[in-house]
Design goal:
Blueprint lengths: L2 H15 L22 E6 L4 E5 L5 E2 L4 H13 L3 H4 L13 H5 L10 H12 L4 H16 L5 E2 L1 H10 L1 H12 L7 H12 L1 E3 L1 H7 L1 H4 L14 H14 L5 H7 L4 E3 L4 E6 L3 E6 L10 H14 L7
Antiparallel strand pairs: 1-2, 1-8, 3-5, 4-5, 6-7, 7-8
Helix pairs in contact: 1-14, 2-5, 5-8, 5-9, 6-9, 6-10, 7-9, 8-9
The protein binds glutamic acid.
The site of glutamic acid has 11 residues, from loops.
């Protein structure tokens, strides 16, 4: 067994036994039904080595992890003009905070808090019907993961659509400042559906490989994005990928990562591997508790922190 295989096996065994599992998100009613007992991990190395553990092939709601892929798409469409609409500073505020938007006149702090992600989705939507925009997002993710079976959990999308009052407030507020170009309900419809994409750890780790490989798609060797852009997306993931828990994640794990309230985290060890973990119980900042614990253990054992072994 390789060092990585042993580490993943040990971590999956330990996570199965842990009783501190955090709390599942309940503000999206459909997510409240997910069993906290799940834990999955998948590591896809840049050399092609694939190592998995626990519930690695069980699909879960990727939620905000989708924001990595929409940011990549939107940068492809708008280039650096995107940064006129959305900042790239950590927010230090909860993922759905409203107050910061008022201070900053409708310009979201970064593309990974909800307001910023809604503004990014609005950019992808411009010039398209919502169905086309969603199709583009889904096709991109399927292409990255090299897996046509990835789809949307319509029940989760409908559940969030029914209860997404906070996101509607954020979107309407941005609209009042002219930050959104499209009708608020259409932008939100695409946003709720992108968050409801269901993927397994293995699919997610495969989809994230381009960020570990300087923007290249390992299946073809062709660039998805250029190396500079991959580096910069990783930088935003490191500083903003875990909301007001981003500092703690950098301190403990030391890798760029993006979490979602479904309990998934996509994590990038540049030049080494793309990693996905899933455990539905969240900490107070809305990030997967055991997901973070597992990644901390993995980076420590493999010496993968970007800040030094
Ligand atoms: N769809 C969720 C929301 O907008 C995403 C939040 C998250 O995953 O952190 O509330």
């Amino acid at each position: 067994m390789s060092k990585l295989q042993i580490a993943v096996r040990d971590i999956a065994d330990e996570m199965r036994e842990r009783t501190d599992r955090g709390e599942v998100a309940t503000y999206i009613p459909e997510l409240a039904n997910v069993d906290r007992k799940h834990f999955g991990i998948a590591v896809v190395g840049v050399d092609g080595e694939v190592v998995v553990g626990g519930d690695h092939d069980m699909p879960f709601s990727i939620q905000s992890v989708s924001k990595v892929f929409t940011l990549t798409l939107a940068l492809g469409k708008a280039g650096d003009r995107l940064w006129q609409r959305v900042g790239r500073e950590p927010s230090g505020s909860p993922f759905n905070s409203v107050v910061q938007l008022e201070y900053e006149r409708g310009k979201p702090r970064n593309p990974f808090i909800n307001a910023g992600a809604i503004a990014v989705t609005d950019l992808i939507l411009s010039g398209h019907q919502p169905r086309e925009a969603l199709g583009e997002i889904l096709r991109f993710i399927r292409f990255l993961a090299d897996d046509q079976s990835i789809g949307i959990d319509e029940k989760v999308a409908a559940s969030e659509q029914r209860t997404g009052f906070r996101n509607a407030a954020l979107a309407n507020y941005m609209k009042s400042f002219g930050v959104l170009d499209n009708p608020v309900d259409l932008t939100l419809g695409v946003y709720f559906h992108q968050c409801a994409i269901a993927m397994s750890c293995l699919q997610l780790a495969r989809a994230g490989r381009y960020l570990a490989m300087s923007g290249r798609n390992p299946a073809t060797g062709h660039p998805v994005i250029n190396a500079e852009r991959a580096r910069r997306i990783n930088a935003v993931m490191l500083t903003c990928g875990h909301y007001d828990g981003s500092g703690e994640f950098a301190y403990r794990v030391g890798l760029p990562g993006k979490s979602g309230v479904g309990g998934g985290i996509l994590c990038v060890a540049p030049g080494k591997a793309s990693i996905a973990v899933w455990s539905p119980g969240l900490d107070a900042a809305g990030n997967s508790h055991l997901g973070r614990v597992a990644l901390e253990a993995l980076t420590r054992r493999m010496g993968w922190s970007i800040f030094g072994a």
